[in-house]
Every structure is written in C-alpha cells, then in structure tokens.
Please model this.
Amino acid sequence: MKRILSGMRPTGRLHLGHYHGVLKNWVRLQQEYECFFFAADWHALTTEYRTPQNIAADRREMVIDWLAVGLDPERSVLFVQSAVKEHAELHVLFSMITPVPWLERVPSYKELQENLAEKELNTIGFLGYPVLQSADIAIYRAHTVPVGEDQLPHLELTREIVRRFNHFYGETFPEPEGLLTETPRLPGSDGRKMSKSYGNAIMLSDSPEAVSKTVMGYVTDPARKRRNDPGDPDVCVLFNLHKIYSPAEVQQEVQAQCRSAGIGCVDCKKMALKNLLDAHVPMFEKRQEVEKRVDVDAILEAGNLRAREHAQRTMEDVRTRMGL
Model:
C-alpha cells in the first residue's frame, strides 16, 4: 500500500469545518492507504510559542475528536510530532541545504505575518516551518499528501528539498505527490469562516441542544425581510448546511419553496437541523464514549512507538548517505 502522511495543529476541540475539510477524507483514506496522522505540536509553537502550556490539553481534545469520527488506530498510525525526535534531526539536516529565498517565497509567509502581527512572527521557527513540514513528510517516505489547492506551494517546496537532498547524497526519499481533496464550503452561523474564536462554529462535541441553538441562529438571505418575501438560496448561509446534509430532493424542494416564499426561514432551518442531527448525533455519542472509556494516552504512545520505528530506520539511512 502507498503511504500517506498528514498532520493537524492541536487547537483543542474541532468543529464541522475540520470534519468536512480534513477528517472525513482521512477516514476514507485509511481504507486505501497506509496512513500516518500526527498532532503537529511543534508546528503549533510557530505561532503559539508564548502559551505552550495549552498545547497538551488541546492535543488530547483533538485526538478524541479524531477517534470519534472514525480514525482507527488499528488501521492508521496516530502519533505526536514531538514524541518522535527524529523529525527535529531531519529538519536540521534539511535546513542545511534549503536556500532562504525558497522559504521567503512561500505565499503564506508574508500573509500570515500581516494577519497575525500581534504574534511577532519574525522568528527563525516561523520562517523555517515549511522545512520542518518537509521533514515530517520525508521521514516516513510518504508517497502522497492530502492537500487543498492553497497548500500546493508547501508541497512543492517539500518536493524541491527532497530533490536537492537526493541530488547531493543519492536517491533516499520519494518525491511526494499531492492528493487534491475537494472540501465543501461550510461557513459559520454568521457567514464567516467557521471558527471557534468567532463563536460561529458547530463543534463535534456539541450536544444536540447546542447544535440546535447554533443552527436556529444561522444567517439567511439578508434581503428577505418578511415571511412572504421570496428568498435566494444562492446567497443564504444556511443553505450550505442543506448542500451537505440534506438529500437532493430536499434541496430541490427548499430551493423552490424559498424562491416562491412557500416556506419561511424558520421552517428551512428546522429541515436542515433534522438532517444535520441525523449525522451529528452518532459522532457526538461516540465522542462521549471515547472520552469516558478509551485510553487516549495509550493509543498515542503505541502510535509514537510505531512512528519512531519508521523514523529511526530513515535516519539511519540518511546518516549513512551523508557520512555522519
């Protein structure tokens, strides 16, 4: 089986945007590939270096969500980046051969510095995090990395670093291919990107009551002021929930009834809510079970051990090829 590597920064409990953007795809991929999925706690330090004490708790909550949605530690290696020190060693060695201009041209470098000006991101760690990302991928000799289009420049940098290493020291790493994944648009209740910090998210850990409250507060067509005004589903934030959770015939009915003012926004929200809860409640219940009965630390330690074995073999080869 071909091998996949992907990671996620520990941000605590996850929301439906994370599920549809990343986790749903991971669950599917573990049926087809040898998968390594890791909690990227060192990457979290590139922006959260002032408050590292929060990372361990956030990591645990995130992994509980992973297990709740169907990631299976029997099928996939679930591990913690910082528990496999070989990532850091390969990062150092890759840093020795990576030209600084390669890092400065990464699109997100200046963009994030501007958007997160309060974080003081003029650090070596922030400039060099794409090199660490490259080491994360290469150390498991991953063939494929699931990415969105916005992440392709990062993967191309990994390919360039791997190519340069292989040129200097002999064929050591495969050049990883990107596995483009389509991610449905799922904005938060106010129309902005779904985010816990915005208070507009539906969390995987939310109770049915909490989900209901959020859905009933969703923004609809702003031009529809009264019940008998026709609406436009194409500009309605709520209709994004129908696109993901409602069957095609329900979507068609909602579109027709909204445009003709046959139903009001409250009725539309109730229809979306029913279909969302049909999918959400099993994950919510599974999460409660995982939280109470599953030894998450033991799962991660077993995954750390498996990951470490692969990483150590790779580094033995790397040191030999470099004459270290």
